[in-house]
Amino acid sequence: MDALLRDAIEAARLARGIHLYYLEKGFSQSTKSGPTDLVTQADREAEAAIRRFLMERHPDHVVLGEEEGQQGEGAFRWIVDPLDGTVNFAHGFPFFAVSIALEIDGAIQLGVVLDSTRDELFTAIRGRGAYLNSRPLRVSQTGTLIGSLLATGFPYDVNKDPENLQYFERVLRKGLTVRRPGAAALDLAYVAAGRLEGFWEVKLNPWDVAAGWLLIEEAGGTVTGIHGEPYALGNRYLVASNGRIHQELLDTLHGR
């Protein structure tokens, strides 16, 4: 697993180099599902670089990426978001990252989230803890929702997918503090690092959460579905916390 983690870190650093190159030199961009669903040269080239690197090292593995999907099947599957926070990146807002996880026989075994502008490297191997630049991570000790800092995110078109608006309103009406930074992988990493007490979002994809999910669990936190059920990759409803506020957060989201 140590060798696999080194490969994930090297692949993430390749992607970070591409992010920073285009951030300085400029880039072209286009849209996918709608006018605010952006994709840039950096997204595509970062994913291509990650794929090439991982497949050269591990030709019997498969890669699931945000931009190119997945070809084939295998017991070892890399789950890649080459640039999480594309809208932030496109506007020069410095909150975006690369996220890489490795799933083995259906279970996430390692995860890497690399903040491109801060060069903060979040890593985890199942059963061996979570780390930020090699320092051990633990979730926050805050025990009440009122003393917590929370984060969430919204889909590209809330008119088509308005569901999170009701959850957001319920949280705000309780006078709670919420941020909307715009990169789920980093939001999850921040829960693991104790910078946030909780995070929830709907309509997430595997590449958004695979690495961050493991980071939180290895840092002592809790990740579930929206009703408190065990989280499973592919569940598009996710609630994450330090564990201490989890039930209170779930109750608030559901208006209880």
Features:
single chain; 256 residues; alpha+beta; D-Maltodextrin-Binding Protein, domain 2; 2 domains; eight-stranded mixed beta sheet; 7 helices; 27% strand
Mean pLDDT: 92
Beta-strand fraction estimate: 25-35%
Strand order across the biggest sheet?
Answer: 4-3-5-6-7-8-9-10
Helix content: 25-40%
InterPro entries: IMPase, Inositol_monoP_metal-BS, Inositol_monophosphatase-like, Inositol_monophosphatase_CS, Inositol_monophosphatase_SuhB
Enzyme class: hydrolase
Catalytic activity: a myo-inositol phosphate + H2O = myo-inositol + phosphate
Binding site for Mg(2+): 66, 81, 83-84, 208
Description:
The chain folds into 2 domains: 2-136, Fructose-1,6-Bisphosphatase, Chain A, domain 1 (2-Layer Sandwich), CATH 3.30.540; 145-253, D-Maltodextrin-Binding Protein, domain 2, CATH 3.40.190.80. It has 7 helices and 15 strands. The model has no long low-confidence stretch (mean pLDDT 92). Helix 1 (2-25) runs antiparallel to helix 2 and helix 5 (184-192) runs parallel beside helix 6. Helix content is 34%, strand content 27%. Strands 4-3-5-6-7-8-9-10 form an 8-stranded mixed β-sheet, with helices on both faces. Strands 12-11-13-15-14 form a 5-stranded mixed β-sheet, with helices on both faces. Strands 1-2 form a two-stranded antiparallel ribbon. The longest helix has 24 residues, at 2-25. With 256 residues, it is an alpha+beta fold.
